[in-house]
Specification:
Elements lengths: L7 E5 L4 H13 L4 E6 L19 E5 L5 H10 L4 E4 L6 H6 L1 H21 L6 E7 L25 H20 L3 E6 L1 E3 L8 H10 L4 E4 L5 E2 L1 E3 H14 L5 E4 L5 E2 H11 L4 H4 E4 L14 H4 L9 H14 L38 E5 L4 E6 L12 E4 L4 H13 L3 E3 L7 H11 L3 E4 L10 H4 L2 H21 L3 E7 L29 H13 L5 E6 L13 H7 L2 E2 L9 H13 L4 E4 L8 H11 L7 E2 L2 H5 L14 H6 L6 H18 L1
Parallel strand pairs: 1-2, 1-4, 2-3, 3-15, 4-5, 5-6, 6-11, 7-10, 8-13, 16-17, 16-18, 18-19, 19-20, 20-22, 21-23
Antiparallel strand pairs: 9-12, 14-15
Helix pairs in contact: 1-7, 2-4, 4-5, 6-8, 6-11, 12-18, 13-15, 15-16, 19-22
Length: 673
């Protein structure tokens, strides 16, 4: 059979991993082919992947979504496309468990739009190569000696593979019903340079580079087959020219290895002790034990694997060592169970072109072979890069967060539902469509924590049930939840004595159970540790520049008849709340001691109050024993180690410096005027 010779090829998703290697190879090897790339620049796409091709005269990049029928039709007609290589898809299985609708939208609906556009052109399209996955076959028997062949039954087991199988059905139907010249590929796992680190091999390499543990789902016995990216690009080159219309081709390898073996091989590359570095974590909801392909059909076309595992892994490691910041901040992807929260066109792509729906754009060509959407006025459907959903509108911190968002021009809305009512939380998320959720709702007591001692069910309902419900719903929707918690779950002890400078760290277990309020907060914090989408901020004795607010710690103690005098860690909200928004933008997770470094005592604060605010102010101290006689529940006193927060935000001031800069200096003029 004569080889197929394309003229004008449209490659979808070619700013992504595999497709970028295919596009760069075709542009390099076939200058007579015009290659048009269509990519919406989602979180796992990067224009830098196409740098080798950007100066080539046979390359053109168009930013857009395959779900836009107008855009796809426009490209097919104006670029005289005769060949489509369809790579664009959501591919990360972990994400599909949390946000399966996005997979249906991208993988099935996007494919359908492409197919329909091809049908409309009549006989213009000569090849439609649809890129699928080995996961559509489902799990291979552990003792199977022969892999799945192209005619094997499709038995997908997760939302991702189900959408890919669904897309295949559409491709097959358009081939049979409309005579569309379709070819389908199903490939094993691919690795190599440029891969976004939500996938295991680049994730493990970056974690090893950072000296962190390598998290393995389950026991690591799952078996996978891996192909180096350049070998896969050559496979697509072969299928493009030699593949038969109406056929399916497996792109695979006979060589298999367990996930644990892969982790150990990466440890050896970095001279790490596997037993010390590898960490076993909770498995996926369902994790196929083995995928194994029979790829003889592709070998019959003349293709064979060239790169050995050792050689390919070494090349990949060297590339990441040379390009550690290729993807920017990927801390969210390096979690054991990532839920990527970045929006299309995020920071690394923000300088390229805008994100606009096809119904709101015209198109113009640029001198660099780029087609750039030109916005019409007021594109109403544009989704913001950031949008916060905030709970706790009537609370002190919740109110301040809204004002901060207004100041920073971050779109936000307050939640309307009760947190303990799951249906109401779901309604909020579906209505607001946020990128992040900030939870500042909770019961701290009226006027103080003593109230919680006589209102325990209400306290549990809000502080425990409501918080957990919100975290769970957010996880289902792939959303980060920033939870404003408390550090009042510790008290000085033998390991952290008063005045020692030894603070409680994020990993320390709560040791204070003196108040029911603190009990509920400690309980919910421990449970939230099971959610990988939560950023817990331990706030302590919050202080702000608003000295008229009754919640302000300074306002409280300035009105007491007597006060104790104990050094404590505290949180200056004027400095820390803007940091909390930045933490959301960075998608930081886990527990953080959200206090200014160091401690300050009641007397030291009141001395500042006297110096800056009221030179005639006087107060009287009393002991903890004396205090116990006038309060219902004991109070927490402790020092918290804020070094983790300080390392992330080096500009963070110590508690005493922050008090002067953000609280007392600004109020000095207003109170003495």
């Amino acid at each position: 059979m004569a080889e197929y010779k394309p003229k004008n090829i449209l490659i979808t998703g070619a700013a992504g991993f595999i497709a970028s290697h295919v596009a760069n190879r075709l542009i390099r090897n076939y200058p007579q082919y015009k290659i048009v790339v269509l990519d919406k620049l989602d979180y796992c796409s990067n224009l830098k992947n196409l740098r080798p091709s950007q100066s080539s005269p046979n390359f053109k990049f168009i930013k857009g979504d395959i779900g836009s029928a107008d855009l796809v039709n426009f490209i097919l007609l104006t670029e005289s496309i005769d060949t489509i290589m369809h790579f664009a898809a959501q591919t990360h299985v972990d994400n599909s468990f949390g946000n399966s609708f996005e997979f249906t939208k991208n993988n099935i609906y996007g494919t359908h739009v492409l197919l329909e556009a091809c049908k409309v052109t009549g006989q213009q399209i000569k090849r439609f190569i649809h890129v699928s996955t080995d996961e559509v076959y489902g799990e291979t028997d552990e003792d199977a000696l022969v892999g799945n062949h192209e005619a094997s039954q499709l038995l997908p087991t997760n939302p991702y593979s189900a959408t890919k199988a669904g897309a295949e059905m559409l491709v097959m139907a358009y081939g049979r019903s409309y005579g569309l010249p379709v070819i389908t590929t199903r490939g094993n796992n691919v690795y190599g340079p440029n891969q976004f680190p939500e996938k295991m091999i680049p994730k493990f390499i970056l974690l090893a580079m950072r000296g962190k543990s390598l998290p393995i789902h389950g026991d690591g016995s799952n078996v996978r087959s891996y192909l180096y990216c350049e070998d896969v690009a050559e496979a697509f080159e072969t299928i493009l020219h030699k593949g038969e219309v109406g056929h399916v081709y497996n792109i695979g390898t006979d060589k298999e290895r367990t996930v644990l073996d892969v982790a150990k091989d990466i440890c050896r590359l970095f001279s790490l002790e596997a037993d010390q570095v590898i960490k076993f974590v909770e498995n996926r909801p369902f994790n196929d034990q083995r995928y194994f392909l029979d790829h003889q059909k592709l070998k019959n076309l003349g293709w064979s694997e060239r790169t050995t595992w050792v050689e390919g892994l070494k090349k990949t490691m060297e590339w990441y060592l040379s390009n550690p910041d290729w993807w920017g901040d990927v801390s969210g992807a390096l979690l054991p169970h990532p839920r990527m929260l970045m929006m299309p066109g995020s920071e690394r792509n923000a300088s390229d072109v805008g994100i606009l729906a096809a119904s709101h754009v015209a198109y113009k060509s640029s001198h660099k072979g780029m087609v750039i959407p030109v916005p019409k006025t007021n594109p109403t459907n544009q989704k913001p890069l950031l949008k916060f959903l905030i709970y706790g509108r009537t609370g002190w911190i919740g109110g301040l967060l809204g004002k901060l968002c207004e100041k920073q021009e971050i779109p936000f809305e307050y939640g309307k539902g009760r947190l303990q009512e799951r249906s109401q939380v779901l309604a909020d998320i579906q209505s607001v469509r946020p990128t992040h959720v900030l939870n500042a709702a909770g019961l701290t007591g009226r006027p103080n924590v003593d109230w919680c001692e006589s209102h325990k069910p209400e306290t549990i309902r809000t502080n425990v049930v409501g918080t957990l419900t919100l975290a769970d719903v957010c996880r289902e929707h792939g959303l980060l939840m920033v939870n404003f918690a408390t550090g009042c779950i510790f008290e000085y002890d033998d390991a952290h004595p008063l005045g020692s400078g030894i603070g409680f760290k994020e990993e320390d277990k709560p040791n204070f159970i003196g108040s029911f309020y603190s009990k509920t907060k400690a309980m919910v914090e421990e449970l939230l540790n099971e959610y990988d989408n939560v950023c817990t901020l331990r706030v302590r004795m919050p202080i702000s520049s608003d000295l008229s607010n009754p919640r302000n710690f300074i306002t409280k103690i300035a009105k007491y008849d007597k006060v104790v005098n104990i050094p404590n860690s505290m949180s200056i909200l004027d400095e820390l709340l803007p940091i909390s928004l930045e933490m959301a933008k960075r998608n930081l997770r886990g527990i953080w001691n959200f206090t200014n470094p160091g401690v300050v005592s009641h007397n030291e604060i009141l001395e500042m109050y006297k110096k800056y605010i009221n030179p005639n102010f006087k107060w009287v101290n009393f002991t903890l024993d004396e205090q116990a006689k006038v309060i219902v529940a004991p109070r927490s006193n402790n020092e918290m180690d804020a070094s983790k927060l300080k390392n992330e935000f080096p500009e963070l001031l110590s508690i005493k410096e922050s008090l002067v800069k953000y609280v007392f200096e600004p109020n000095k003029k207003s109170f003495t005027a």
